[in-house]
Amino acid sequence: MEVDAAGEGKRGEQTSPDAGPASQGGPKGKRRDAAGFPKSRKGKDKDTKNSGRRRRTRNEEALEDGPADADASGEPKVSAPRLPKRMCALLIGFCGSGYSGMQIQQNAKTIENALFDAMVRSGAVSQDNADDPVKVNIARAARTDAGVHAAGNIVSLKMITSVPGVPDMIARINEELPPEIRLWGTVRVQNSFNPRTLCDSRKYTYFFPTYLLIPPKPSSALYRVLTEHTASLVPTVPSPIAEHPFWAGGAATADSEDMLRKRAWRVEPPQLAELRAGAQKYIATHNFHNFTVNGEFSDRSNQRIMKNIVIADPVVYGETEWISVLFHGQSFMMHQRKMISVLVLACRTGTPPQIIDELYGPRDVFIPKMPALGLLLEEPIFDSYNTRVARINEKLTPADADFRPPIDFEAHRAAIAAFKQTHIYENMRCVEDRDGLFDAWIRMVDGYAGNDLLYLNPKGTIPPAAVIKDRHRKMPFREKRLFDATSFPDGKQSMDAEEEEEEEDVKVDKRKRVDTEG
C-alpha cells in the first residue's frame, strides 16, 4: 500500500491494519500508535530515506561534477552542437564485388559498414552515435549475400538531415562513399518504419550466357549417367541429349576449343520457349523447400509467393549471347539462385517443365546453385506503405512536418541505369569474357557422376535414386566457393585459388536462413 504525505492511504486502497475504525475518534485513515492515538511527527527529523533519488538534469550534473571532457591544460572542450535526427529511408545502389554482403558486421568489409562510416564522416551521423550503428536503428529491406549487386535497396536509420555549411547532404555523403556504392536519395519516413517488414515485394534479375543451354558433352560423366537412366525407363523413350548437333564430331575436343564454339552459339526459338514455359511454373504460391538450404517440407516459412517472371529476348554482348530473367516475388530465400539452376538444367537436358511441380513435393533433392556473378537486386517495392502515407498526405502539404513522401526509385532511373552499365554489367561481362566463369560452373556440373541429378529426365519425375534420405548428409557433389564470388582482380590465377577451396557442408538453422533472406 502506498501512503501519501499526510500518511493517508490512497483512495480505493486498503488502509494499514494498525489504523482503528472511525468510531474510535480521530480522522479516518490516520495512523495510530499502540494506545490507539493518532501518531504525530512533531519533533521528529524529516525523513531523508528517498532524498537524492530524483534524476539529476544534465545542467545539474555539469555544475556538480565539472566538465566531463577537458584538454591537457584542464580547459573544457567545446562540444559540437546537438543536431536533430530524423528517421529516413536511404535509397542506395552498389556493386557487391569484393564485399562480404550487405549487412553491417564487425571486422568485415560490407556495404553497410562503408555506408555508415561515410555518414559519420559527412556529419549525417553524430560522433556520439559513431561507435554503434544500433543507436541509429539501422535496418535494411533486403540482405544480399556476399558479392551480390543491387541497383536499388533501402536502408533506414535516424540521420541528421541538415548540417550547417553542407548545402547538399546527399552529394556530401556520396563524396565519402567509394564509387561502387551510391546514395540515390533519402526519404523522410514514419518513426516506426521497418524496411524489411514493410516491404511488399522485391525484384531480382539474373543474367547468364545462353551457351549454358547446350546439352552435356558426350564424354562427360553427367551425359553418361543421364543417358543410362533414360535407357532404363519403361516404356522406353529416346534420350533428348543424345546426338545433339553442337557436339557432332566434337566430343573429344579440348575445353578451350569448346569455349570458342560456345560463345558463337545462339539459342533457337523452340528452346527459348521451353525456358519461358518452365519459368511460369514458379508463379503463384509454392513450397520452395528444395530451393534453399536445409529446408523442411513441413516448415510453413518455405511457402513463398512469386508474382511474375519475365525472360527477355537474348542479347549479344561482344561474342557472347546473354539472357536476363526478372523475378518479382514477395520475398526470396537463402540461395534461391537454385530456381535459375533448375530452369537451365531442365532446359538443356530436355526435362519437361512439370519437374518443377515435382520439386514442390515432400521429397528432398539436391539442386546446385548458379554462380553469384549473374544475380542483381533491382529494387524493393513499398506499395502498401506508399498507399498509407498517401492517405495521410491528403490534407497536408510537403512543407508540413507530418508529410511523408512515397518510397520510389523512379526519379533516379537514369542515374541507376548508368551505374548498372558501368559498375555491374561491365564487371559481369569482363569476368565471363576473361575467365569463362559460367563455363567453369557448367563443366563442374557435367563432371558429376552421382545419382542426385537423375530427376533431369524426359519424363519429368523424381526417381528414388535421386531422393535424399538425410538432408544433413555429407554431399558428394562439392560446390566450389569460386561460384559464390563476383570479383577476381588477378584473373584466372585468382579463380584457380578460389577453386582449390571447396564449400563446407554446414548445417544452416532456420534462424540464420531467415536473417539472410530478402
From TrEMBL:
The keyword Hydrolase does not apply. One of its GO terms (cellular component) is nucleus. InterPro entries: PsdUridine_synth_cat_dom_sf, PsdUridine_synth_TruA, PsdUridine_synth_TruA_a/b_dom, PsdUridine_synth_TruA_C, PUS1/PUS2-like, TruA/RsuA/RluB/E/F_N. Substrate binds at Y204. GO terms for molecular function: pseudouridine synthase activity; RNA binding. It catalyses: a uridine in tRNA = a pseudouridine in tRNA. GO terms for biological process: mRNA pseudouridine synthesis; tRNA pseudouridine synthesis. Pfam families: PseudoU_synth_1 (PF01416). This is Pseudouridine synthase. It comes from Mycena rosella.
